[in-house]
Amino acid sequence: KNVFNLFILNLNSNKLQVIKNTTFIGLENLKSLNLANNNIELIEENSFKDLKSLQFADLRSNSFYQINYL
Question: What string of DSSP letters covers 21-37?
């Protein structure tokens, strides 16, 4: 449960479909997030609110249907 020191998270090509608003809780130090090449259709509101250190996010090649206030 302690992911406080996680700086890079690569979830490329994992067939993800939904990013929930609880997905990234506890990742305050995350700087790079790769969500490319998934099947993401929905990103719930406030999904990235805890990513206070995020500098880069790759969302390429997804099937976005709805993105609620990031």
Answer: TTTTTT-TT--EEE--S
